């Protein structure tokens, strides 16, 4: 790299030189961005001759929020199905239920989680007959920003990092 000397003598040239250096430094600092690489999917698939009961259990390692979810039945239910979600923690719990007879169910959950909270999702029907099916469930969980690892990149380095991740 070429070594540039600080101009001597004329104050105007010195001021212009300093302004040019500061402008270059400002451009470099403006190209730095932060990225949080979340959210996390929590999902499972359960199949069998009778899939009633608990279909998903999960414990949260840190604080966050369950944003949304999807439940899919491979075969459309012949009768209404009760989908229950309970979140149990050291300070109590919270429960939500949904009744459906559709194959694909999109749900806005918006439930806060704490470290050590346990999630349980279950499926039940009103009849005593077995419920043969294949049930897919997926929830989208976002940890709090304090629990996430934040990496700072200079924009030029970000492309190299993404290339390394793809290899």
Description of the molecule:
The radius of gyration is 27 Å and the shape is rod-shaped. It contains 2 helices and 10 strands; from the N terminus they run αββββββββββα. A hairpin with a 2-residue loop joins β5 and β6. The protein has a domain of 106 residues: Jelly Rolls (Sandwich). Strands 2-9-4-7 form a 4-stranded antiparallel β-sheet, with no helix packed on it.
List how many beta strands DSSP finds: 10
The main pleated sheet reads as: 4 strands, antiparallel
Query: Under CATH, the topology of the domain at 40-145 is which?
Result: Jelly Rolls
List low-pLDDT spans.
none
CATH architecture verdict of the domain at 40-145: Sandwich
Distance between the termini: 32 Å
What's the oligomerization state?
Answer: single chain
